[in-house]
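Severity: low
Component: inverse-folding endpoint
Summary: output formatting inconsistent between runs
Steps to reproduce: submit the following structure tokens with default settings.
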């Protein structure tokens, strides 16, 4: 199985490029997964056009790249019969990157969206950069942009692509066919940033004391749970669960691990009473 991860900022043309690439790989068994923040029907349109299995994952209040890292193993385990799994990520903050080793990491880069030096690991760790919107500037400007990309990532391959005309799709498909098979162990190429504060735990009041209070309560609750992001509580991550508990919307015992501890504690109290 080959894992292909397309990352890029909103509006860079990721989905359009992917559609053209899937069309060039129609002789292979493909699964497509789209990660977005609020809503998307791209999976349905791709499924209808190419008759492949697809799904959409909505991250909501979680960083979409963190969410992708949590969900990719689940996607792979469900689609081991596929030749290729294509992951499209939202890529919003440019500090995170869900690229994994033994995959093909493709950064779809809008040539009009700013200097490459500001793109972080999404560009720096990419095996392949698909540059879009190049038809809107001159050849000289495209060459300058190309040199700036190579300053950030000297080892990457650059392909000029166009989601409307299909330019570059054959070249990207060829790179996919040459890409490595997924190994037994999945390892991120770049560690996700670690920062947890009161706002991360859902504080909305811009006040240092309120933020500290929220952080303290969140930290205490986080210390009580196994932080597996298992989803058994009904939320995408343990942090999302903590926010809902602190907002008073759910009881902490909807976490099966905390419920088990509470039940064990109540059982211990009952036994003590019976003994006495």
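Observed output (run 2 of 3):
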């Amino acid at each position: 199985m080959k894992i292909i991860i397309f990352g890029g900022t909103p509006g860079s043309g990721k989905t359009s490029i992917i559609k053209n690439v899937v069309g060039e790989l129609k002789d292979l068994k493909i699964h497509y997964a789209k990660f977005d923040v609020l809503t998307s029907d791209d999976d349905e349109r791709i499924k209808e056009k190419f008759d492949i299995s697809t799904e959409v994952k909505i991250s909501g209040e979680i960083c979409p790249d963190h969410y992708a890292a949590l969900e990719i193993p689940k996607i792979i385990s469900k689609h081991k019969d596929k030749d290729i799994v294509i992951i499209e990520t939202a890529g919003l903050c440019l500090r995170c990157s869900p690229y994994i080793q033994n995959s093909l990491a493709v950064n779809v880069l809008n040539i009009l969206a700013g200097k490459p030096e500001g793109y972080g690991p999404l560009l720096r760790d990419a095996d392949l950069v698909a540059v879009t919107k190049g038809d809107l500037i001159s050849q000289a400007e495209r060459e300058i942009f190309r040199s700036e990309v190579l300053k950030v990532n000297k080892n990457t391959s650059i392909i000029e692509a166009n989601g409307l005309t299909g330019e570059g799709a054959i070249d990207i498909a060829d790179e996919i066919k040459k890409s490595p098979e997924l190994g037994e162990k999945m390892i991120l190429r770049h560690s996700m940033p670690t920062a947890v504060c009161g706002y991360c735990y859902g504080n909305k009041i811009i006040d240092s004391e309120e933020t500290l209070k929220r952080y303290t309560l969140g930290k205490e609750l986080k210390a009580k749970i196994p932080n597996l992001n298992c989803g058994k509580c009904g939320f995408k991550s343990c942090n999302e669960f903590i926010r809902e508990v602190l907002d008073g919307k759910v009881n902490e015992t909807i976490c099966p691990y905390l419920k088990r501890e509470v039940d064990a504690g109540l059982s211990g109290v009952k036994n003590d009473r019976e003994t006495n």
